[in-house]
User: Fold these one by one.
Assistant:
Number 1:
Amino acid sequence: MAKIDLNGVGHCYSGKPEKLEDFALRPMNHSWDHGRAYALLGPSGCGKTTLLNIISGLIRPSEGRVLFGGVDVTDQPTAKRNIAQVFQFPVIYKNVTVYNNLAFPLRCRKLPADEIDRKVREVARLLNLTEQLKSSAARLSADAKQLISLGRGLVRNDVAALLLDEPLTVIDPHLKWLLRRKLKEINDTYNQTMVLVTHDQNEALTFAEKVVVMQAGQIVQVGTAQELFENPRHTFVGYFIGSPAMNFMPCRLDGNAVKVGEERISLPELATVDVPPEGKVEIGIRPEFLKLEHDASPDTLEVPILNVRDLGNFRIATVRFAGHDLKIKIPEARPIPSEKGFLRFPRQWTKLYVDDVLREPAGA
Amino acid sequence: MLVSRQKLIFLLPGLLVLVAIIIFPLLFTIRVSFSSWDVMYPGLDWIGGKNYSRLFSDSRFWESLQRLAGIAVGTVVIEYLLGFGLALLVWKEVRYKRFFRVLFLVPMMTTPVIMSVIWRTIFHESLGPLNNILGFLGLGQVPWLSTAGMAVVSVMMVEIWQWTPFMFLLLLAGLLSLPKEPFQAAAIDGAGPFRTFFMVTFPLMAPISIGTLIIRLIEASKIMETVYVLTSGGPGTATETSSYYIYIRGLRDFQIGYAASLSVTYLVLMILALTILAKFLVRAFISKDKA
């Protein structure tokens, strides 16, 4: 049981990296606290699996050190790291029974037979596999096989962290929900650090206490579901988390206002941010926070309403503002003006990004 | 109706070729097997099952069949073990991997008949280099081709040398196509190389192993040129295999009718034996743990 620290860990698959873009995983520092449930969220190819394989020791990082409880394990083989990993597709030993599958890691560690039996039965009970213990593992369904993969990690007493590499991909939606709940239960029961790799934001946000968002080989934000939603620290987080994605518009600062095209939005706090002359400056606001009013007021701007889509308990209105199409999420009960409305950018939820990174006004 | 006629028209050329090159010779051989066609009286007369009743009491044929079974199964098993071993050696990252991969394939690129002639020279008891080397090492002379037991060993050695690369090639292709996750999972579970081999590599390779073994068993049961060149079935009939015995009866003694009955019997026995062997291999390789 230990805290996992990544000190300057980076990896390049093809020889020596010459520039930052050569890294599949850019050098980073990050800590995984003991006993917490994390989700590693990002699109395919962003380096999630590479990061996971570095922690488990399947890949030796080309740069940096991996520490378990303060002990450097960078050069230690996988078997000595006390890590369990569940892969995207179920990995079972197909020639043997479910019992022997679950017992395998303990036999490799030469535990006494009675202890193996006790532990296997305990984990089988937890995963509802007791009935199938004597069945051939190869004959089970995909989700039962995935439970066996998970069980092989849980039978071990020495596991410091359980790494889950998109393990719910092959599971059907209803079972996916059950399995996710089971994972949470396991996290509570065994107090193991869990890292769930996924590209599904719902999976990440419902499973983890902290979500680590990755893009192009780097961690762009670590936070709770609420933090990621309310305060995305990178435009990618704004695009990737939330549906529909965050609205972004290129802008420039002008006095105490932010100017988008020829339109001025009065945002005195944001206007104080120091912006480099050649930087890419954008404002962003979530569709949930953008307001569409019926009547004009000093801080509103008139916009034509292009369309409204009804999605059951909410609707999404698309409006045209300074040449940009903006989405607004409106609860079902709230009336929507027809043809034109008045747009309001609440100061608290309107964010400024310079070169894709959130810039907050001094004192925020 | 029109569609089925069109299908037939498209299938007809292929069917005609199949009938001409497989079905007709087979049916003709079956017909010949009921005749007494030989060098004295060539022609398709009808003698009923006389050739078959003669065959049942022909101990030389049944001995050749037993010998063939021994040689074929023995060589194929050794080829499989060697081929798998070599494939495992050059599967992972080793130095000069490409060089070794090509080197192991060299025997397959040579002509079997010519290599059998070369091997006959190597095995030659007084002129061959093999006995010279053994003598130099103080191991004494070995009568490679003149004693029954050693002649069988020599035939098997040449077959193994010739065909292990084929096994190696197919098994290496199989190993290279295996997914990496099961190996990573075994490493995480703490399995050493032996456990990994028996729990992961071998079970994953089972379908490829079965296919490779069956292909080689079919090929090995037709062993002919090595025996012909190396020992001519001798000494005595020590290395005489079924196909070589059929060749002797048909093309040396010109007992065409009798050779045809031997061929038909051999074909039926081979189909039966290989079907049973295939089932046995599936059971042996894809075993289900009932514990």
Number 2:
Amino acid sequence: MELLTLLAVLLIALGAGLALQWPALRRQPLPGYSQRAPFLGGGTPDSHAWNRYHIRYYPMTLLLIAFEMEMMFMYPWAVVFVEKGLMAVMEMGMFLAILSVGIVYAWREGVFKWQ
Amino acid sequence: MAVSWLGRLAARAPVPVYPLLGIGGERALYPLALAGRVTRVDSPRHASVLLVAGHVPVHHHEALKRVHDQLPRPFATLWFRSQPLPGLENARRVDDPATLTDELVALHRELQTGQRGSSPRLLPDEPPNPWEGLGDDGHGGEGMMGGTPYGRPMAMNMQDDIRDGLTLDSLTFRLGPFYPLLPPGLAAEITLQGDVIQSWTNQSPAYPRALDAVFQTARERPVAIAELELARARHHLRHLYRALRLAGLEGLGLKALRLARELTPASHLDGLRRQLTRAGFFRLAALDGGALDAETARRLGGPAARAAGIDTDRRSDDAHYRRLGFRPALGRGGDTRARWHQKLAEIEQSLALAGRAVDEGDLTTVGPGGLETPCGPWRERPAQDAGGCLEALLPGMEWDSALATIASLDLAEGSASPPPGEAHAEEPQ
Amino acid sequence: MMAWAAMVLTFLALAVGGYAVAVADRLIAGACGWPHQGNAWLAPLARGAWLYRQDANVTEAPDRPAWRLAPALYLALAALGLALVPWSPTLVVADLATGVVLWGSLEALATVAIFLHGWSANAPLALIGGYRYVALGLSYILVSMFVLIGVVLPAESLKFSQVVAAQEELWNVVRQPLGLPLFLIVGLGLTFWGPLNLADSTDLAGGTASEVSGPPRLVWEIARVAMLVAFSGIAATAFLGGWLGPWLPGPLWLALKMLAVLLALAWLGRVLPRLAPERCVTLMWVVLLPLSFVDLIWAGLEAL
């Protein structure tokens, strides 16, 4: 039931977002090429913009994966935390300490810099 | 019915204006920035009115047409001290800065209430390369990456990245001469990999920017030091506005502009400086990098040189300046951050000098001789393409720090005489 | 029945809240030195009308379905986010047992929507904006999760209604003093607002939105303020005790707290400079993430 209402919210909002754009897109003809050229302050590009883009933060994305996996364990841990008491604090504290060392190491290696 | 109701509502919106600045066009920019009822936008897609301010030289008419055509309909053009291009006979022209805002608001209202049609397109409706019906699939492409699919080739890898040596695709495009975050007139061919600049080749230098008339007078006869120093401070404050807007601190930039407008020898910079520091301008914004080597700094002269610790200031030669206790303020490092510390220090110095000169009975300069303009020693001819230093400076920098570096340099200045074209633009047509 | 009433309330809050953000932003701008742009109450509506009447721009070869979908998707994510917020113990659209997890996934999807917006225009400046935003999106998401898990600990549940109920004695903003400031920074990132506006920034002439005009841009701007509203709803629920409060009815208390968060965000957006992307990533990982660890440990010890 709750998921159905959420689905309704999703569809209404998505529909509203598309509907606002719809009539405007239908009534207007395709603009000419002189309008469609990408804006570069009067300049022109040599090629399409889509390319094998050089993302400068790629080492950081790898580090993120390690943390994202860790999040999976954290949700159930959080729910049973009070029940398990100090033991849970210790466990997660150790886990976070190890990860923190990882961050410090990554920082030293320049992972967060634009490569 | 519904449309006209919407139109009337739309007519009351703050007018989004894309200012396209020609020679001397910044004269329109500063009052416009402080005027209510209009908003300055950075992309023609976001504008309702294209404001062409100042004379645009003929070799930039093609670029002007390109920007003009990039405004989505309905839009209008307003020409401030500039001759409308052929084909835009319906466009409106103004020469009086005082009526600029009213004209912009009126144009927007006329557009929205249907009293005025949209400006026509100036360029032919042709794809950059023919593609329809060509190639393997009729979309202009050939093989995996070849041909011109939908009118343009695909990006290719040309060279190893200059920072980490990876060979990914590079984007090459020409930016300017009307990119709002570059000095007006400056155009360059840029190659990027990711957001790091691989190469930067200037295509046209920034338009000369007219200095305050008092600098012209100071070359011919003694002028009041207070007046000269206030003009200098005003110049730097306007420069600060342009950089703060780029840094996302437009509110403080407008404060700087307001201070410039109401400058007196009793003005002081403390409030603005404190707010800048508190907002974290020097710590958070992209001010790293952009360090000039000693030779380039010396060639550029002025605050850029003094920020690099080079003791060069013609005011030291003036006996009356020395009497006021003038000693050039010097910075260290010569990078973008140092240049802003330097500029703020020089504004404060100028205000202090102006105050002291008034106290000394409105002291004047000694006389014609070496003159220090806000952007360096007076030169008979503008320095040959001050922007040339960018070609060595920018490669390897990220997009935002590259633009912040350009914003911290006075690339446009170098001429105290009215720039060419200004006289032409002033003529009533 | 309650769910439907809550749904109406949610969409009403999105509309009214979005309008309130637009007005508040203008008023704050006026106080921070911008020239007066006429009537601040009318200006957002007039601007919306202008955008609706302006032609939608098309680039040479855009990914058109994705380009039109991105603003609508971002709006839908905002609506879903606000749907998780309980207005009172019973008045809530969906009080999922995994509410906090769903909010986390919405934050992750927001990065996708914003990237899609920049990528699909097939224009250089918009593309840079999109990729730049991903760096930010991947950096703030961990901070957000650790901070939210901090509020889950005392509640012993991932339900937002339980999170509120656990604040009966003391709000989390006092109990976990690091939580709300960190979460506000996440909010600035999520809505690419002010100092964290790396996607639609000035140096890129509008970034992902630089090629967008007309109705699609209208939806994009609506979605952005809607996301601010949704975020403020979650922040008020997680840290400011949600519906809790004396005298006034619960929903009104929540609305007031959301307004306070919105004002704080709008003000921060106007007074701070835009961060350099590289510095932003370092700041998130090296300063804010360890701080969020501290917040989590603090919350844990406090909850026992």
